[in-house]
Structures are given as C-alpha cells and as structure tokens.
Specification:
Helix content: 10-25%
Order of helices and strands: EEEEEEHEEEHHEEEHHH
Oligomer: single chain
Number of helices: 6
Largest sheet: 8 strands, mixed
Strand order of the largest sheet: 4-1-7-6-10-9-8-12
Radius of gyration: 16 Å
Length: about 210
C-alpha cells in the first residue's frame, strides 16, 4: 500500500450555527510529515478531546474510496486530504484490516486502534451536513493509529504489515457495530476487552450502550 500524499493543516476558521470555530480538518499536502506519539508534528489539532493523543495520533484514508465520494459529490474538488487524513494511501480495505494490526510506514511503526467517527466538520468541508450520515453508512471509515515508533513519512513510502492479531475484529465490523441500533452485548464486550482498541472508543461504547 503506497503513500500518495501526506497532509497537515493550519487552524481554519469555520462558521457553525452563526458562531466562529477553529478546526484542523482542512489539510493540504506537504513534502513529508513526522509521526509523533500523540500527533503529527506541525499539524493543527484543535479539538484535543476527540483528536490526537496516543490512540489517535494519525489518521489514514484510502484513495480507492475517493471515487465513491466523487460520484456522490461531482461538483466538489477532491484534493488529497479531503477527509482530514494525514496520510492518503493508494489502497485501504477496512473489511480486512484488523484492530491491532501493526505496520511499518516510512520510518514509523503504527498500530490500528479504531475506525474514524465523522462529525459536523466534515459537513462543513462538503458544504452538506448529510455527508456525515452517508459516511457512517458507507464502508469506508479509514483508520486511526497509535505510533509505536516515531518517524518520518513521505510520498511513495509503503505500508508494510508487521503483525496481525487474528483474534481481533476487523475495522469495518467495529464501525458497523458502534452504529448498530441493537448490537449484541457480547460483541460489544469483546470490543471493550480488546487490548488494542482506543480507550476513547471503549468509553464511547460503554456510555452509548449503557454497559
């Protein structure tokens, strides 16, 4: 899986319900990025409650998913970083990738922690808040990762699998479960008990489903 682009952002002011708000969602390509243990160096992370930190240090998205969104939003320009991703990969398959999968990416070593959960800032980027629901229903959430070894990542670097935990659920199965109206409690418990899952997602599941 080749890196097509690496992307960071500066703080951008948006208007939500008539009020100004800053966001780091609007990312643009750069020559290289440095993956730190809590975030990407020089990237703007405004909402530290929901972004950044050791379990969500970097967000990766597959360019193979772009065609789906282009067909839904043909009038929009789809540049790299459209989904707020730090790394745009040539190909990503959330239906086969597992939570806890560990990869070499450039100089860094990363581990998948959870799928991305969209918010209203994506709606601002797309000029359509309905995209948030569409994103939840689509099978293309992308992946958040923790950084086990810091390092530089640049265009044309490759993503190489180092280790996979066969007992872990796939990224897509977790994504489907957290938006299920009536999920099986034993499956939710399996996610909570998984040692690789982001702590924030565990707390989200516990609160949402009253576990």
């Amino acid at each position: 899986m080749k890196v097509l682009s690496v992307n960071i952002s500066k703080p951008t002011t948006i208007i939500i319900n008539g009020k100004e708000e800053q966001t780091g969602y609007f990312k643009e390509p750069v020559d290289s990025i440095f993956l730190g243990t809590t975030d990407v160096k020089d990237d703007s992370v405004i909402d530290r409650e929901h972004h950044g930190g050791k379990d969500k240090a970097c967000y990766l998205y597959g360019y193979n998913h772009y065609d789906f969104w282009k067909s839904n939003y043909p009038k929009l320009a789809f540049d790299f970083g459209m989904f707020g991703e730090n790394v745009t990969l040539e190909y990503l398959d959330e239906s086969t990738l597992k939570i806890g999968d560990t990869f070499q990416l450039g100089e860094a070593i990363i581990q998948i922690t959870q799928p991305r959960q969209p918010c209203y800032k994506m709606g601002v980027k797309f000029n359509d808040q309905k995209v948030v629901k569409t994103f939840r229903l689509a099978p293309y959430p992308g992946i958040y990762v923790r950084v086990l070894k810091e390092g530089e990542v640049k265009e044309n670097d490759e993503l190489f699998l180092i280790e996979s935990d066969e007992s872990s659920p796939t990224v897509l199965s977790v994504y489907r479960l957290i938006y299920d109206n009536n999920p099986a409690k034993e499956k939710l418990q399996q996610i909570i008990d998984n040692k690789h899952i982001a702590q924030q997602l565990k707390q989200y599941i516990i609160k949402k489903f009253n576990l």
